[in-house]
Amino acid sequence: MAQLNVSLPADLQRYVDGRVSDAGFADSDDYVRALIERDQHRYADDVLRVRRLVQEGIDSGVIDREPDDILDDIIADIRAADD
């Protein structure tokens, strides 16, 4: 298994220690792994969502909106889903 060393300021280290204790993680390594896995799943979900939206656009035919406006809407939808 690869190793990753991360330096944290004291306030973040206290936060991590609290999360490890409160959420029942075995140690900070498990907590960081869980965060990375959650991010990995969110990223994969975002990619699928964008692919579906692109396909929906292709399937819908020609539209009269500017591409930048459409992209802004897609980005706003992704950000709203993350909240």
UniProtKB/TrEMBL annotation:
Top-level taxon in the UniProt lineage: Bacteria
Stored InterPro entries: ParD_sf, Ribbon_hlx_hlx
Protein name: Type II toxin-antitoxin system ParD family antitoxin
